[in-house]
Design brief:
Distance between the termini: 51 Å
Structural class: alpha+beta
Number of helices: 3
Largest sheet: 9 strands, antiparallel
Length: about 200
Amino acid sequence: MKVILLVIAALLVIIIFKACVSTNKSAKDISRPSLDKIPTVEKPNDKLIIVQNVEHFQIKTALTEFCNSYNKDDFAALPRLYQLSPDSFAIIFPFDTDLSIFCFATNFLKYPIDIKWQADVHAWATIKKGDDYATDYLVNKPTMIYLDKADKEYDNVFLTTKDGDGYKVPFAKNQPQALSIPIEQYKSPTIKLEDLKTLKYEDFK
């Protein structure tokens, strides 16, 4: 029995190692579609991520690796970065992006590849009909998206709606799970989207 358990444990280690190596390679791969596929018309949306307690070069690296992972076949996410203070940044998606990719971005910025930080990451978006995770009770709900410090699965995000409902979204199941009590209470972002218009920015693709 001990031998079997050791074999199973060894196989799990190999599988996890291969998955990590594959993810790492994906994040370093700078291949992109033809540049003529880049959208040119901005789409109004209220998606916003605020990342605090990080350095400028770190978040630039994280956003570059995120784009490396998600923009290989098409330009699925084109984040725009604003620096709010020496260690605080706002990210928007002027050409919009799928809610699922927006949630992946929030997760990625909390746990970037090869970057060791203790970033505070919170995101906001109004869930629209047709979005991934857009169940009837979430449509048109302003929502705060974040990670739970106590969660050890690392492949999900948590939601709190403006009216106080909490959900867990496991990426593998693609279905929000209602929580009896939200992990965090909803709070409004510390900056409004219109206030960003006067600030300098950096675009990533």
